[in-house]
Each structure stands twice: as C-alpha cells, then as structure tokens.
Amino acid sequence: MMGTEVCVDWTMRLAVAALFLGLTMVITRDEEEGDLCLYEALSDTDAVLCKGLEVFYPELGNVGCMFVPDCNNYRQKITHWAEPIVKFPGALEGATYILVMVDPDAPSRSSPKAQFWRHWLVTDIKGIDIKKGKVQGQELSPYQPPSPPAQSGFHRYQFFVYLQQTQNISLHSKENKTRGSWKMDKFLNRFHLSEPEASTQFMTQNYQDSPNYQTPGAGSSEPKDKPK
Ligand SMILES: *[C@@H]1O[C@H](CO)[C@@H](O)[C@H](O)[C@H]1NC(C)=O
Ligand SMILES: *[C@@H]1O[C@H](CO)[C@@H](O)[C@H](O)[C@H]1NC(C)=O
Predict the structure, then answer these.
(1) At the fourth CATH level, which superfamily is domain 44-209?
(2) C-alpha 140 – ligand 1 centre gap (Å)
(3) Dihedral angle, C-alpha 208, 213, 216, 217, nearest 10 °
(4) What is the pLDDT of residues 13-44, one digit of tens each?
(5) pTM, entire model
(6) CA distance 188 to 65
(7) Pocket lining: 124 vs ligand 2, CB cutoff 6 Å
(8) Closest ligand 1 atom to the C-alpha of 118?
(9) Please, what is the end-to-end C-alpha distance for the chain in angstroms?
(10) Ligand 1 nearest atom to the CA of residue 121, by list position
(11) 126-154, pLDDT tens digit by residue?
C-alpha cells in the first residue's frame, strides 16, 4: 500500500480510512456549500447504551449512537433546536414511561464534577405516544439543548426510558433548584426504577472547537453565540 498514493479522491480516502478504523459512516454532500458531512458512529464502548431508542433532530435525522457531524453548523444548530423526537418502537401501548436525558460529562468527560446534568425529565408518557415518537407527559425539567462548554471535549448526551410503575414521580425541591450534579441514581432508587427499557446516546462538542468551524466574518454569517 505504501508509495502508491496517486490521485485518490479524498472522499474515497476518508471512506477507506473509516473502514480501516472499523467505523460506520454515511457521507452526504451539502448541495450549496459542498461541505463533506461525516456521520461517524460511536465507539463500541459507547455504543453499549444504544438499545431500542431513536432520537431525531431536524436536518440531522436519528443521531442515536452517532457523533453530531461537524458540517452545516450542526453542532451550533443543535444548541438552539427544540426537543428532539424520541421514539421507542418497542413501547407497550398500555404502559406508562419516564424519559430522562442527561450529560454525564459535565463539565467534561475527564473531570465530570457536575455529573449528571439533567437536560430533560418527563414522566407519565403514554406507551402509545412514545412508540410513535411523541413525548408528552409531565415535564419535571423542560428540555435544555446540549451546549458543551468550549475546550471541554466531546460530551455524551444520554437518553433513558423507564417503565413507570408508580404515580406522582417528582423531584425534591433541592434537586429541582439546579440541573447540575443530579444524583440520578438516588432518584431512580426512590421510584424503584432500575434497568431502563431502552436507551441511546449521541456525542457532540462545542462547535467553536470543531475543525470546520468558521469564525464569523471569515465566510460565515452566523452570529457568534456564547454557549451555556
Ligand atoms: C422545577 O420544577 C418546575 C415545575 O415542574 C419546572 O418548571 C422547572 O423547570 C424545574 N427546574 C429544574 C431545574 O428542573
Ligand atoms: C398523587 O397526587 C395527587 C394530587 O396531588 C393525589 O390526589 C394522589 O393521591 C397522589 N397519588 C399517590 C399514589 O400518591
């Protein structure tokens, strides 16, 4: 293989490199900008969480088990988009479910002092609804989009669906005051929630840390936002 590097199209080279690394990916090309979009799958270790749950954002589609691609400003757009469609095709129509979305990597995966950051907590979701991707119920913590701090690396955004066996699931007032450092295991124990029925995660990092990020004025007309 060495020394035969003639004039291989670089898209092809990336695809070959990805195959070599054992990655799954789909390449799409933005018609207007000609950007290369790489949908890269999570590592096998991070993929163990991907069990029966799909998370759809506009433009991106299902990001379950993927890195949010570094193109079309997706990593910036996801910090503004409203809640995704969360679909649990295996839901029992007559059952009731709880949806939890957390960031275990707050403020960073190497030093997760504020894990778990609670991004979304909804109870009393009807099986018949979440089966079709409709998350409707008691919103104990409204959806907060992923906004990883600059220079903090990739964060995992994890989604868990639990079978809800009891009524009146609630947060203690202390838990409700802040989203960071949530003792999720205590919450789960309190309501006898052990194993999730379904789960998934995706990963993203601060968009300004991404190689393809263009600073405003250097070709991009996007306003510069301060991530939370
Ligand atoms: C606390 O509870 C209220 C009412 O359910 C909710 O609107 C608010 O977002 C909660 N705060 C947090 C940090 O979860
Ligand atoms: C749940 O809360 C409602 C309203 O506060 C109350 O009427 C009901 O008895 C509670 N149910 C349980 C199981 O605690």
Answers:
(1) PEBP-like (3.90.280.10)
(2) 6
(3) 150
(4) 444 444 444 445 555 544 445 557 888 999 99
(5) 0.80
(6) 23
(7) no
(8) 14
(9) 46
(10) 14
(11) 999 999 999 999 999 999 999 999 999 99
